[in-house]
């Protein structure tokens, strides 16, 4: 079995509670596999920091319902415990009108019970109404119990327990207000783990808090994989080895792929990276912040998202790296860039204070930071034949950024349509025969042929 940690809304402490549970299990030497519902990159970083295992994203819209089941089963095979952190409120999905891509949908797909987290800071007896509503709203779900968060005092706890008693709903954890335990955030969410030198002591405090705040006699059987409960255990085969029509012409050795990974570029799905390796790529990590040159002998470049706007001054202060990237891309080195990677390939990044910082200069546009948040799932329709797509091909991705480009490509990569089909599609992205650059984040789990075609393009290009 496993548990899904869900909140009655966003901001109730799902990530903190999940980290506390993972930290306690890891302290005790248990092998625990974590998962995150939705497209988020940062929460999985915290999971992996604690467990030492890659956290997997479970998103039936970005991938597929079948892939979610396969991914969960495959990643959990050698673990003793499994924990799934939800997204937003339990029933909040992609559109706000239904629960597609919601925590509830993933819990149903995996046949797992839900641990419901309630923020009790400003209520007492009303907690019973909320718990009752969530338990009865969808009879297909099983609520294993609740965690009471931000409890103010012993008297407050007594009132909460009295209110919940008629529901016969187990209280599996009680967390008092913990002002000294807080995760710093910025304009796109939490600050990533690589920027938090005090994260290890914080995780130690969370582990100690979890040891005394949860009913482990009830929790451990629910979290343990392989113990059959009321809902049973899902049985699905692991994901197949990906294949694609793309062929690599006479590769002489493993294909080296330069992956930008540092404090500025850290948004990568674990499944994407592992898929590239399974297809024969050797991932060579390098830092556009610190390295003066690209790694030797690489057949392609991969730029994920991240926070290049936060480190724009440092990126600008490394002209050797910027020049090497620009020269390689102009020479035709296959390149895949998402969001932050797209921004790095522009002429300049203009930060929140209006300062312009020179970037790689591949794309004739600037990336300007602003207040407007572009957020949501997008249906992408390819407008050109590229090394990844054929014209007219469609896929789902996710957009999440506060910057905009000052100029658009005359031959855009995609037309993007929001999840709401009544919204108009807009042109987006830059492309050439060997360049793919877009704000769209794409998970290749259900589309392994895209990763295969990227590797094939890298294998067919002379190494740099």
Automatic annotation (TrEMBL):
<dbReference type="GO" id="GO:0009236">
    <property type="term" value="P:cobalamin biosynthetic process"/>
</dbReference>
<feature type="site" description="Increases nucleophilicity of active site Cys">
    <location>
        <position position="441"/>
    </location>
</feature>
<keyword id="KW-0460">Magnesium</keyword>
<feature type="domain" description="CobQ/CobB/MinD/ParA nucleotide binding">
    <location>
        <begin position="3"/>
        <end position="188"/>
    </location>
</feature>
<dbReference type="InterPro" id="IPR011698">
    <property type="entry name" value="GATase_3"/>
</dbReference>
<keyword id="KW-0436">Ligase</keyword>
<comment type="similarity">
    <text>Belongs to the CobB/CbiA family.</text>
</comment>
<dbReference type="InterPro" id="IPR002586">
    <property type="entry name" value="CobQ/CobB/MinD/ParA_Nub-bd_dom"/>
</dbReference>
<dbReference type="GO" id="GO:0042242">
    <property type="term" value="F:cobyrinic acid a,c-diamide synthase activity"/>
</dbReference>
<dbReference type="GO" id="GO:0005524">
    <property type="term" value="F:ATP binding"/>
</dbReference>
<comment type="pathway">
    <text>Cofactor biosynthesis; adenosylcobalamin biosynthesis; cob(II)yrinate a,c-diamide from sirohydrochlorin (anaerobic route): step 10/10.</text>
</comment>
<keyword id="KW-0169">Cobalamin biosynthesis</keyword>
<keyword id="KW-0547">Nucleotide-binding</keyword>
<keyword id="KW-0067">ATP-binding</keyword>
<comment type="function">
    <text>Catalyzes the ATP-dependent amidation of the two carboxylate groups at positions a and c of cobyrinate, using either L-glutamine or ammonia as the nitrogen source.</text>
</comment>
<feature type="domain" description="CobB/CobQ-like glutamine amidotransferase">
    <location>
        <begin position="257"/>
        <end position="447"/>
    </location>
</feature>
<dbReference type="Pfam" id="PF07685">
    <property type="entry name" value="GATase_3"/>
</dbReference>
<keyword id="KW-0315">Glutamine amidotransferase</keyword>
<protein>
    <recommendedName>
        <fullName>Cobyrinate a,c-diamide synthase</fullName>
        <ecNumber>6.3.5.11</ecNumber>
    </recommendedName>
</protein>
<dbReference type="Pfam" id="PF01656">
    <property type="entry name" value="CbiA"/>
</dbReference>
<dbReference type="InterPro" id="IPR004484">
    <property type="entry name" value="CbiA/CobB_synth"/>
</dbReference>
<feature type="active site" description="Nucleophile">
    <location>
        <position position="339"/>
    </location>
</feature>
<dbReference type="InterPro" id="IPR029062">
    <property type="entry name" value="Class_I_gatase-like"/>
</dbReference>
<dbReference type="InterPro" id="IPR027417">
    <property type="entry name" value="P-loop_NTPase"/>
</dbReference>
């Amino acid at each position: 079995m496993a548990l899904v940690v869900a909140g009655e809304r966003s901001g109730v402490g799902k990530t903190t509670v999940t980290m506390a549970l993972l930290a306690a299990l890891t302290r005790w030497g248990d092998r625990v596999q974590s998962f995150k519902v939705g497209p988020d990159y940062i929460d999985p970083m915290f999971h992996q920091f604690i467990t030492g295992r890659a956290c997997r994203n479970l998103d039936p819209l970005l991938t597929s319902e079948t892939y979610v089941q396969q991914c969960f089963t495959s990643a959990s095979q050698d673990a003793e415990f499994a924990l799934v952190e939800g997204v937003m409120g339990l029933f909040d999905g992609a559109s706000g009108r239904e629960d597609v891509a919601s925590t509830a949908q993933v819990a149903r797909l995996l046949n797992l019970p839900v641990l419901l987290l309630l923020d009790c800071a400003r209520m007492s007896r009303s907690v019973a109404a909320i718990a009752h509503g969530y338990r009865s709203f969808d009879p297909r779900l099983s609520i294993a119990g609740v965690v009471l968060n931000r409890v103010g005092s012993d008297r407050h706890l007594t009132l909460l327990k009295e209110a919940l008693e008629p529901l016969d709903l187990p209280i599996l954890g009680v967390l008092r207000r913990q002002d000294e335990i807080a995760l710093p955030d910025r304009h796109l969410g939490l600050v990533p783990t690589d920027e938090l030198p005090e994260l290890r002591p914080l995780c130690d405090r969370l582990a100690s808090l979890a040891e005394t705040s949860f009913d482990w006699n009830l929790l451990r059987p629910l979290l343990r994989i392989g113990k059959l409960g009321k809902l049973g255990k899902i049985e699905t085969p692991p994901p197949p080895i990906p294949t694609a029509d793309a062929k690599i012409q006479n590769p002489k050795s493993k294909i080296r792929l330069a992956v930008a990974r540092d404090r500025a570029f850290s948004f990568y799905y674990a499944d994407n990276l592992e898929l590239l390796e399974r297809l024969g790529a050797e991932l060579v990590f390098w830092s556009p912040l610190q390295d003066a040159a690209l790694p030797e002998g690489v057949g392609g470049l991969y730029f994920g998202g991240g926070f290049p706007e936060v480190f724009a001054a440092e990126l600008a202060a490394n002209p050797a790296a910027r020049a090497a990237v620009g020269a390689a891309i102009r020479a035709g080195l296959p390149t895949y860039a998402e969001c932050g990677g797209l921004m790095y390939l522009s002429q300049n990044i203009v930060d929140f204070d209006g300062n312009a910082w020179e970037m790689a200069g591949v794309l004739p546009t600037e990336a300007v930071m602003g207040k407007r948040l572009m957020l949501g799932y997008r249906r992408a329709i390819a407008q050109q034949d590229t090394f990844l797509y054929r014209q007219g091909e469609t896929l789902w991705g996710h957009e999440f950024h506060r910057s905009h480009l000052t100029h658009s490509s005359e031959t855009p990569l995609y037309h993007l349509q929001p999840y709401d089909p009544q919204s108009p599609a807009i042109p987006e992205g830059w492309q050439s025969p060997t360049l793919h650059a877009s704000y769209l984040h794409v998970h290749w789990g259900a589309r392994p042929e895209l990763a295969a075609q990227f590797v094939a393009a890298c294998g067919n290009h002379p190494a740099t």
